[in-house]
Amino acid sequence: MEMDMEKRGDVLFDEGVDLVKFQFTDVFGQNKMVEMTRNRAERAVREGYPINRFALGGLKKGETDSAAPEHMTGRGERTQLYLKPDLCTYALLPWEGAGAHTARLICNVCGPDGAFSGLDSRYLLQRQVERAGELGLFVEFDFQCEFYLFHTDDDGRPTTITHEAARYYDAGPIDLAENVRRDMLVSLAEAGMEAESARHGLTPGQHSFRLPPRCGVEAGDYLQTFKTAVKRIAKRHGLHATFMPKPNMSGDGSGLHVGMTIRRTDGASAGETAARFRVGILKNLHNMLIFTNPMINSYKRLAAERRSVFQPEFPAAAWEKGSDKAVRLTGDGERGSSLQALFPDPAANPYLALAALISAGIDGLENDDALTQREADPRFPETLGVLIRQLGDNSFARRTFGETFCRIYQEGKKEEWERFCSYVTDWELAEYLHRC
Description:
alpha+beta; Ubiquitin-like (UB roll); seven-stranded antiparallel sheet; five-stranded mixed sheet; 14 helices
């Protein structure tokens, strides 16, 4: 499979590069990669690099005794796909360790004929960006992304232990991770992906970064790269960084607050567009949650209807006061009119989350409907299982991502849910073992 090669000047890679990582994202948001030497990488850019389609499906071979999910065994779909590097994403990765000069290229996934795969979440975001452009709509995304830093055990496995006592905006020496955040800020800047700011979060062990505006697919690339960099740098300090939405009972949940700045290229009012965009997101909120909040653990963070659960960011009582707690207009500025979605979590596949937000916003523009009372005061489902069962009838998801993608996504999530339902938790043992 031949590819067009757009060279960066006279050479494709910097002279000192030893390794090149071809990175791509699977259906469920996991960052994947193939690494090779510089010479091999230049050849792969020209010819494409073949992968098995199972690499996109989240197959956990050997992790379960049950049969492989249905979507992994369908022989009617081709198994050979190709990585198509986007040369605009070329970057050196300073967090990859001393002595190794490593670069990366983010890839789309396509078939032997060069057509993009319907399982490539990056392409699915690009399709929604193009759809917005056809309507004279330009959307920039910025992020406030939260995560926890925990210690690892003697074998290097992650724990939920932190020795910190620091809280909201605390500084060193109370904040024991100040140097870790500094390393993250400097490394991101060296890679040309400078963050706006960083601070300690609300509860011990939690941290928050503000990421500057990016447009379209570049925003998804930036967020995915940020998450990878944070994990690699934390490991270098002997810590584990987790973007799990609710990793413990006592701490605040980790959110991904997505800012959207909207401009019109056709002269229409950006303020009115942002307002309709917000209506579209709220009307489709329930339909997009399985993509913006995709984990079983996500609904521990949202804690809908659970007043006994400590959740300062999203207490159930706050949701009763209206939809501004979920999606709010944040005003007009030089770049355009802006709004912010507070409900997504950082475990989401960035490309799917952003694609869902754009698609929902466009629905709000194309269908001039008022919010119902239920949509104006959103309530979150109790569990992910509710959304998995409804995905087959979710017309918004099928319009946005396609029938095949939704079928594979549902099958994978169903398998995850069934494993969860059959798992005996520590809570069950503590609650019932002595009584029964």
